[in-house]
Amino acid sequence: MTIPLRTGMTLVSYDGSIGQILEDAELAETLGYDDVWFGDVGAPDALTLAAVVADRTSRVRIGTAVTPVFTRTPAVLAATSSTLQQLSGGRFLLGLGSSSEKMVKSWHGLSFDHPLSRVRETTDLVRLLLQGEKSDFTGQTLSSHGYRQAAAEQPVPIYLAALRPRMLRLAAQIGDGVVFNFFPRSALPKILGYVHEGALEGGKSPDEVEVVCRFQVAVTDQVEEHVNYLRFFLAPYFAQTVYNRFLAWCGFEEMAAQIAEGWANKDRESTMAALTDELIHDIAVIGDKAYCQGRIREYAEMGIHTHIISCP
User: How far apart are CA 66 and CA 81, in angstroms?
Assistant: First the structure.
């Protein structure tokens, strides 16, 4: 099985306006993009907008990267996914992930316990419900009994976000694809190694698992300015526990420790200094058009199938 290479666009609004998102979705389809993708972190609501985008487009695949498993129940996810699959004519893809303590605990006031189990159980239960089965499920983190909905007319692919070994293996083992974000390029072979392990553990060929990544891209001749902006943009992410541990696991232990210490002490200068120019270039794609296109092609040669372009 050969998974085709795809290019997607991130649909995002920094001022809360949905008009620009809808214009960008239509533009992406006109320009020949294969996919449009939403983050799912707050307003404007990603899954509501996905329904409108499904109506405004006819060809592009529509995905979430990713919907947190803690903030919507499996019954809600199954009902929404089935609806979106009908509205889009089979173009919807549900991306799920554990998200972060910041979002789950601080924003929603929910516990962030056993994220690996929560992802596994949510995936299993959503798939069961999408097949029209009545729920009778008791797990470590979830339970559901007696809920049933009509089977989805077309299957809903479920992709899972992952950072470190256990989640990477799980995502490839039970997911239809895996989703990466904010990884240093130098760590990609290591990351893909665990994806291949997980696929084999799930009885699949590694070639059957679609690998998706969101890239922070700036097509510009003002490279230094955009490196500095990405440093500002990425610092809060890598200060969060889940991404800080990921950065350390990728081989940047000293930088991760400096970021964590600087953030805890509210020392923004120290935090930002840990994100060196070299590291920013390892994570993001910043340069002129030819450079950015070439860098994305290199990622394709390294094993990434779907490239979601995000321009912060």
Answer: 13
Tens-of-pLDDT digits for all 312 residues of the chain? 689 999 999 998 877 789 999 999 999 999 999 999 998 877 788 999 999 999 999 999 999 998 999 889 999 999 999 999 999 999 999 999 886 666 656 666 667 678 899 999 999 999 999 999 999 999 999 999 999 999 998 999 999 999 999 999 999 999 999 999 999 999 999 999 999 999 999 999 998 999 999 999 999 999 999 999 999 989 988 998 889 999 999 999 999 999 999 988 888 888 888 999 999 999 999 999 999 999 999 999 999 999 999 987
Instruction: Give the C-alpha separation, 27 to 275, whole Å.
Output: 34
Angle at the Cα of 187 (from 183 to 189), degrees rounded to 5?
120
d(CA 54, CA 22): 10
- Rounded to whole angstroms, the Cα distance separating 297 from 131 reads 37
Please name which of 118, 262, 103, 252 lies closest in space to residue 182, comparing C-alpha atoms: 252
Token pair listed for 101: 């303590």
Q: Which long-range contacts (CB under 8 A, 24 or more apart) does 77-84 make?
A: 77/122, 77/126, 78/125, 78/126, 78/129, 78/130, 78/149, 79/149, 80/47, 81/126, 81/130, 81/152, 81/156, 82/130, 82/149, 82/150, 82/152, 82/153, 82/156, 83/51, 84/47, 84/50, 84/51, 84/54
Which helix (H) or strand (E) segment holds residue 67: the answer is strand 67-68
Give the span between the Cα atoms of 138 and 90, in whole angstroms: 30
CA neighbours within 13 Å on the CB side: how many for 312?
A: 17
User: Quick check: helix, strand or coil at residue 215?
Assistant: strand
Residue 203: CB atoms within 10 Å: 8
pTM for this entry? 0.93
Q: How far is CA 43 from the centre of its chain?
A: 17
φ, ψ dihedrals at 267, nearest 5°: -100, 85
Among all chains, which residue has been given the structure tokens 């972190």? 41
